[in-house]
């Protein structure tokens, strides 16, 4: 196991550090203390070629805006909050509106724009980085001082584990996720249309025209949201389903998971032989097929385009603050928020 860290640049005299984690099999992950952003995950294909299977900007300055949220930790609340407000304990809180009138992914300065405190660690069978940040009362409109810790760990089973931990001195909404875009073809040499996605989910959330859950919880049976047996993404993207059309001809939808830490999310690219298995204790995963990728900055050496990557955002249900029948995303004062998502990389030689 190996840990290397190097300074890439500075922001307001604060160093931006890249941490590179390498296991004994040559799998490698690079992440930054800025936004906990993941810039590289190098894994082999079926022929033993190690390539990057996540999207990353070519120039660090692009992360200062990072409109697609490439590779970053998202918080305090992942997803959209309708009308940028919520009521809690009889008080109405107004959040920063950064997408029309709505609040998206933590606001203007969400966790993806934070320079986190970071410390690497190395053990016999794992290597990692522990990030920490104190989100102050009133930040982006949220109540409470929240101490947040995010730990990235790479082990010798070619598993990458993200552990989230937080505690607040006031009740506050909180659900964290990671917004990495995966492309298992390697170095983004193909888009994700031939990737196959399988999810153990019987129900999904339809969206309104602003991509916010309507409140309905719908059965996936007989729809393009039935991924229990797996679907090639091109089949979804080529469809005329109104929900698929609504978000730019793809997915940007929450799927409620039937099971946890049970190979509940599987992404496969048969040509490269790479398979990604995602396991989590979160209630849902938001699947986003890169339908709205902006094309201003180059990504992985090429101009970005639709369907260049897919996000698998494990989290609470979006806009849960407005839907009492959704599982609550409120972190009570003094209670501990704890969540783990594991990304296991496997090979198929079909």
Automatic annotation (TrEMBL):
EC number: 5.1.3.3
UniProt-annotated catalytic positions: 179 (proton donor), 313 (proton acceptor)
GO molecular function, one term: aldose 1-epimerase activity
Source domain of life: Bacteria
Keywords: Carbohydrate metabolism, Isomerase
Binding-site positions, beta-D-galactose: 179-181, 252
BP term (GO), one: glucose metabolic process
SUPFAM superfamilies named among the record's database cross-references: Galactose mutarotase-like
One Pfam family of this chain: Aldose_epim
GO CC, alphabetical: cytoplasm
Pathway assigned to this chain's UniProt record: Carbohydrate metabolism; hexose metabolism
Catalytic activity, as annotated: alpha-D-glucose = beta-D-glucose
Similarity-based family: Belongs to the aldose epimerase family.
Name of the protein described by the UniProt record: Aldose 1-epimerase
Species the sequence originates in: Anoxybacillus mongoliensis
């Amino acid at each position: 196991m190996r840990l290397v860290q190097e300074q890439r640049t500075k922001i307001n005299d604060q160093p931006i550090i890249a941490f590179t984690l390498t296991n004994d099999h040559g799998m490698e992950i690079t992440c930054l203390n800025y936004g906990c952003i993941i810039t590289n995950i190098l894994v082999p294909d079926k022929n033993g070629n190690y390539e990057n299977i996540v999207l990353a900007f070519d120039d660090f300055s692009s992360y200062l805006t990072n409109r697609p949220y490439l590779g970053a930790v998202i918080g305090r609340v992942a997803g959209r909050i309708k009308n940028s407000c919520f009521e809690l304990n009889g008080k109405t809180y107004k959040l920063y509106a950064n997408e029309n009138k709505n609040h998206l992914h933590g606001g203007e300065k969400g966790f993806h724009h934070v320079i986190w405190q970071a410390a690497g660690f190395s053990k016999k069978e794992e290597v990692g980085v522990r990030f920490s940040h104190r989100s102050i009362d009133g930040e982006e409109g949220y109540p409470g001082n929240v101490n947040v810790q995010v730990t990235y760990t790479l082990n010798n089973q070619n598993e990458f584990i993200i552990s989230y931990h937080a505690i607040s001195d006031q009740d506050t909404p909180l659900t964290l996720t990671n917004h990495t875009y995966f492309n298992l073809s390697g170095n983004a040499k193909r888009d994700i249309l031939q990737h196959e996605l399988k999810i153990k989910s019987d129900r999904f959330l339809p969206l309104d025209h602003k991509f916010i859950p309507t409140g309905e919880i719908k059965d996936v049976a007989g729809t393009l949201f039935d991924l229990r047996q797996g679907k090639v993404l091109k089949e979804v993207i080529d469809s005329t389903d109104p929900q698929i059309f609504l978000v730019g001809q793809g997915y940007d939808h929450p799927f409620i998971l039937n099971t946890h830490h049970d190979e509940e999310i599987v992404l496969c690219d048969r040509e490269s032989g790479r398979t990604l298995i995602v396991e989590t204790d979160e209630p849902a995963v938001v699947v986003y097929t890169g339908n709205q990728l902006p094309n201003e900055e180059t990504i992985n050496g090429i101009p970005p385009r639709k369907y260049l990557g897919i996000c698998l955002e494990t989290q609470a249900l979006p806009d849960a603050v407005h839907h009492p029948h959704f599982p609550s995303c409120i972190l009570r004062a003094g209670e501990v928020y704890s969540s783990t998502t594991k990304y296991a990389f496997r090979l198929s030689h079909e």
